[in-house]
């Protein structure tokens, strides 16, 4: 029991040291059983960050801001960033702090995640949010709850009149809509849809990407890793990993 107490004190001090008073607030709410939206003011960010208790948001927060899974020697002057599978916006906020002048397009299909994504990015004029799912073409997608939390929603193609369906958009469509010639950083974390995205029409946009950051989900959809490596192996690249993320820098 004493060991548990000391462990709790150590963790709370660690959270305070890393994140200031916001870290203490977050630590005190981590075991909350009731879902509610709380705000945390971190010392390295100008604006509060919002997340939900009793959800997977806390684990996502730790991955991004504590474990620094998006830390990497990025291109020095990234001007265009697309965040596919933005969830509630933590990766977009992390990259916005590194590249305050970059255009960041954050794409998220699930409605409750998207609402918090908008809230988290509302004060960042360089972040544009799109309520769509990333796919190979413009169609409609059905949200599939896998039961593993707010970070695990999948999508599948569906009829236009399917209840709750959301529009799909291809990466090439985004480039055309925003008149983008290249993408400096393309982050893709789309819970298995990598299989489709890297299997069809990828030749339209992949040669225009300078750096690719992705998490593969073969455990959720078999064949995602094969599709990914079959696509990128047509080009020269350097690969590194940090946590669950694969960083591909095209040469």
**Sheet with the most strands: spatial strand order:** 5-4-3-10-11-13-12
Q: Just name the CATH architecture of the largest domain.
A: 3-Layer(aba) Sandwich
Estimate the global geometry from the Cα principal axes. globular
Q: Assess the beta-strand content as a share of residues.
A: 15-25%
Number of helices: 8
In the CATH hierarchy, the third-tier topology of the largest domain is known as Rossmann fold
In CATH's first tier, which class of the largest domain applies? Alpha Beta
Low-pLDDT parts are none
Question: Helicity level, as a percent range?
Answer: 25-40%
Give the total of domains.
2
Most strands sheet: 7 strands, mixed
Structural class comes to: alpha/beta
User: Averaging pLDDT over every residue, what do you get?
Assistant: 87
Task: From the alpha carbons, calculate the radius of gyration and give it in angstroms.
Answer: 18 Å
How many E-type strands? 13
Distance between the termini: 54 Å
Report what the structure shows.
A hairpin with a 2-residue loop joins strand 12 and strand 13 (245-250). Helix content is 31%, strand content 25%. The termini are far apart. Helix 1 crosses helix 2. The chain folds into two domains: 1-67, no CATH class; 69-250, Vaccinia Virus protein VP39 (Rossmann fold), CATH 3.40.50.150. The protein has helices spanning 2-19, 21-29, 57-66, 90-98, 111-121, 171-177, 194-197, 224-232, and strands at 37-40, 49-52, 80-84, 103-107, 127-130, 133-134, 140-144, 154-158, 166-169, 183-188, 209-214, 237-242, 245-250. The longest helix has 18 residues, at 2-19. The strands form three sheets. The chain has a seven-stranded mixed sheet, covered by helices on one side. Strands 6-9-7-8 form a four-stranded mixed sheet.
């Amino acid at each position: 029991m004493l060991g548990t107490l000391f462990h709790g004190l150590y963790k709370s001090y660690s959270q305070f040291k890393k994140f200031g008073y916001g870290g203490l607030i977050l630590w005190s709410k981590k075991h909350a059983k009731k879902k509610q939206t709380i705000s945390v003011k971190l010392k390295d960010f100008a604006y509060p960050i919002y997340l939900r208790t009793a959800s997977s948001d806390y684990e996502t927060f730790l991955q991004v801001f504590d474990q620094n899974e998006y830390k990497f020697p990025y291109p020095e002057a990234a001007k265009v960033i697309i965040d596919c599978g933005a969830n509630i916006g933590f990766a977009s906020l992390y990259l916005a702090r590194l590249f305050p002048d970059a255009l960041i397009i954050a794409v998220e299909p699930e409605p409750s995640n998207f609402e918090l994504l908008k809230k988290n990015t509302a004060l960042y004029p360089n972040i544009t949010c799109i309520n769509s799912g990333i796919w190979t073409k413009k169609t409609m997608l059905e949200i599939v709850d896998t039961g593993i939390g707010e970070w695990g929603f999948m999508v599948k193609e569906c009829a236009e009149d399917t209840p709750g369906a959301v529009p799909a958009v291809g990466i090439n469509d985004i480039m055309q809509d925003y008149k983008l010639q290249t993408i400096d950083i393309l982050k893709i974390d789309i819970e298995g849809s990598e299989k489709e995205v890297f299997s069809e029409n990828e030749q339209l946009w992949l040669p225009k990407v300078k750096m690719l950051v992705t998490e593969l989900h073969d455990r959720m959809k078999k064949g995602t890793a094969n599709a990914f490596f079959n696509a990128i192996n047509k080009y020269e690249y350097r690969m590194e990993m940090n946590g669950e993320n694969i960083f591909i820098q095209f040469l």
